[in-house]
Amino acid sequence: MSTDMAADQRKKPGVVIKDGWTGYSLELFNYPEHYKGDLECVYIPHGVIMNRIECLARDILEDIGHHDMMVLCVLKGGYKFCSDLVESIKAQSRSTNSRLTTRVEFIRFKSYLNDQSTEDLHIIGPDDLSMLKGKNVLIVEAIVDTGKTMRALLQHVETFQPKMVKVAGLLVKRVPHGAAELPDYVGFVIPNRFVVGYALDYNEYFRDLNHICVISETGKQKYKV
Ligand SMILES: O=P(O)(O)OC[C@H]1O[C@H](OP(=O)(O)OP(=O)(O)O)[C@H](O)[C@@H]1O
Ligand code: HPA
Questions:
Q1: What CDD domains does the record tag this protein with (predicted)?
Q2: Looking at ligand 1, which residue's alpha carbon is closest to its atom 9?
């Protein structure tokens, strides 16, 4: 992600959720009625996500707040994280009277079918990201799982000759042979479980759920394609 050794050393793993974490009982939280029976537990409640995002926004502002920022949102999974992160960056920037400007661009990658990464990783668009040339780019991605999307994206972005590239990942999954490198800004490192909600989907379902949850076997069967 960044080639700066000092910056690499400053990278933090974020909140590390241990393998034994079974999540919170669904009865303790409010969630859409139409997903009753489709979820196993609330893994990360919405309020915790929002608080963590404020901390990431603070770290990003400390590091690159004196530059103008070109934010590249990775769709579709990244739309909520990107929106909340940029709002928090802007709010904190206003309260410190910084002159930071943010511009948001979007890119779409797709590779998952059911809960599996497929070989068919493709960029749905846009092809031309020449607006990134010479800019400080912050890639905003909801989850780094196998790391394939992130690697492809970094390679693609580098071809447009940005001045600097940093990556913010809300979730990083601990998987065998996963991403070799952490994103520059990490929300949570999570166990190897398929999670949904906060714009993360299972075949397009659950993006409308605010908490990050673990899908149940019933849910997987119900929405399988
Ligand atoms: O690290 P990886 O194993 O590559 O997985 C991470 C990617 O998978 C998901 O995208 P998906 O391809 O499902 O598209 P979507 O965001 O439109 O749902 C997610 O939003 C990440 O972009
Ligand atoms: O756990 C996940 N959930 C939703 N989408 C994903 N894309 C990669 N991993 C995941």
A1: PRTases_typeI
A2: 77
74 lines ligand 1 (CB under 6 A): yes
Say if CB 60 and CB 71 are below 8 A apart: no
25 CA from centroid of ligand 1 (Å): 26
3-class DSSP state of 69: strand
Q: Which residue of 74, 82, 112 sits with most ligand 1 atoms within 8 Å of its CB, as the best mutation to test the pocket?
A: 112
Q: For 164-196, write each residue's pLDDT tens digit.
A: 999 999 999 999 877 778 899 999 999 999 999
Q: Which of 35, 84, 38, 36 is nearest to 57 (CA)?
A: 84
Q: Which of 128, 181, 136 is nearest to 156 (CA)?
A: 128
Centroid of ligand 2 to alpha carbon of 69 (angstroms)? 27
Q: 10 Å Cβ neighbour count for 75? A: 16
Q: Which CATH number fits domain 46-193: 3.60.21.10, 1.10.10.60, 3.40.50.2020, 3.40.630.30?
A: 3.40.50.2020
Sheet holding 102-113, edge to edge: 15-16, 185-190, 164-173, 136-144, 69-75, 102-113, 116-125
**Could you give the residue numbers annotated as active site?**
145
The two structure tokens encoding residue 91: 């709010």
Residue 86 has pLDDT above 70, yes or no: yes
pLDDT in tens, 135-156: 999 999 999 999 989 998 999 9
